[in-house]
Every structure is written in C-alpha cells, then in structure tokens.
Design brief:
Distance between the termini: 44 Å
Strand content: 5-15%
Number of helices: 13
Oligomer: single chain
Number of strands: 5
Largest sheet: 5 strands, parallel
Helix content: 40-55%
Order of helices and strands: EHEHEHEHEHHHHHHHHH
Length: 274
C-alpha cells in the first residue's frame, strides 16, 4: 500500500497547525515535529516528503535551525515557509528565504487551499524529478544531468526542442548529437519520456488519479495520458498501477535504450519542419 504524503511541520506547538491540517490535499498527513532533530528523523525515515516551517508570530529560531539542518542533510528536500506577513519583519522573512525555502505561503490568502495544493504539487514533482535522475544515473551521463533535471522539472509545460536547447546555449542539432552520443532517445521522444516518467511517479503518489495527473502535466485530458502511457510503456494503466507505475516506466525506458542503438544510428538531416 502506498504511504500517505507526509508533511512535516515546525514548530509543532503552533496554534496554526490546525489550519494547515484543514487545507492539506487528500492523501496527505501532517507530521508535527517538536524540533529539528525529530524532523530530520522523520525525513530520513521517509515519513515526511515535504516540510512546512512557520515564519512569524514569534521567534524564527526553530524554523531557521530546522531549515539549515535540512539543507545540510537533505539538499533536495522540498521546504515551504508558512508566512504571517503581519507578524514578521522583512529582515526575518529574508533570512527565512535565504535559508533555502522553495515557496512562501501567505496564510492570509483567501484561496489558501488552492494555493497550498498547487505548491504541494510542484514540490512533489520536484521530488519525483530528483528520484528519476538518481534512478537513471547509470544510463544518463553526468554531463546530461542538468538537461534531464530541467526537462523533468518542467514536465508540466509543453517544452519546445529549440527552446530547451537554447536554455543550455546550444543548437537543437548539437543537443541531439549529445543525446545520440549517450545512446539516449532523440530529443522529441526524450522530452515525452521525461513527462511519462514524472506522470508514472505521480500516479504512485497518494491521492493522485489519472485525471489529476493529466491536468497537472497539461495532457489536456486523461485519454491523452492513457494513450501515451500505453504507447511508451507497452502496458495499460490498470496493470501499470498494479505493478508500480514508477518502476514499470523506468523499466520501459531502459528497455527502449537497450533496443535502440542510438549512438550507431545515422543522424537525420535537419529541416525547417523538424
């Protein structure tokens, strides 16, 4: 059974923790932590996949200490600052931001539930992206990890091949050559594979449905995601989820690399329509 999404909270004694519990997405559970030691243990054990720290309304020392310890031990762990802008000085807020938070949530927002759900979705996508990079470290060369990370973390966008190449100061042709040299799929299917891998990771997360994942990754409708998953993994959605979508998608990607000797294939000539 897939575990719930654990959301750590520092400090656990805050009266606003009840409000946080009321807005977390379905399938998520708040894990109160009395101090940074308890939080680090929870993160290390896998009980907490996302941490929320409170900024304002008192001393920020516990939050800052937790942030710094998290960044030392778990540099990729997503952290959100729950901010009361009426009770925090600007220099304290800046200190919190510099300590390594990815997002700030203003607790006075009217659409707080929607905003928090969006931020949690973004944080979850980043975590899955890091998992994919780690899982493919043996087949994707280190020099291409920045490309892989960028495409994975932007898999909710319709990335243009020329635009991706431009991000790294390359032409599309040069970027294609680097993928070919690494025996990876051509650029267009490579971008789709990245979306598929993130989608599979999300499908294994609690509270995610085919419809919600399709919406998060902008597949327009679940039927498009269903067909793409079937085409790339060779497995229908029911069997994919029953066997662990993430691991099945990784397996399919590796098999695709093994089946296609990209490094030995002749490169197609570029054209205006390509």
């Amino acid at each position: 059974m897939t575990p719930e999404l654990g959301i750590g909270w520092i400090p656990s004694s805050s009266p606003t923790i009840d409000r946080l519990r009321n807005i977390v997405p379905m399938g998520a559970v708040v894990v109160p932590c009395a101090d940074e030691v308890e939080l680090l243990i929870a993160v290390s054990s896998g009980r907490v996949a996302l941490t929320v720290v409170e900024a304002g309304g008192g001393s920020n020392a516990p939050s800052l200490l937790a942030l710094r310890r998290l960044r030392e031990g778990f540099p990729q762990h997503p952290v959100i600052a729950w901010c009361d802008v009426r009770a925090i000085e600007s220099h304290d807020l800046l200190e919190i931001a510099r300590a390594g938070v990815q997002d700030l949530v203003r607790q006075d927002l009217d659409e707080l539930r929607h905003v928090f759900a969006r931020i949690v979705a973004s944080a979850t996508q980043r975590v899955i992206s890091h998992r994919i990079v780690d899982a493919l470290a043996d087949v994707v060369p280190q020099r291409l990890h920045p490309l892989l990370s960028y495409v994975l973390e932007h898999s909710d966008e319709h990335l243009d091949r020329d635009g991706v190449a431009a991000v790294f100061g390359l032409s599309r042709r040069t970027l294609q050559n680097r993928l070919t040299d690494a025996r990876l799929p051509p650029l267009r299917p490579f971008l789709t594979w990245c979306r598929i891998l993130v989608a599979a990771g999300l499908l294994d997360e609690p509270g995610h449905t085919l419809d919600s994942v399709a919406a998060q990754l902008d597949f327009h409708e679940s039927a498009n995601l269903r067909m793409t998953l079937r085409r790339y993994t060779g497995t229908n959605i029911t069997h994919l989820r029953a066997r662990g979508a993430f691991m099945q998608a990784l397996r399919a990607f590796r098999e695709e690399i093994d089946r296609s000797p990209y490094a030995n294939a002749s490169l197609p000539q570029s054209s205006p329509a390509d």
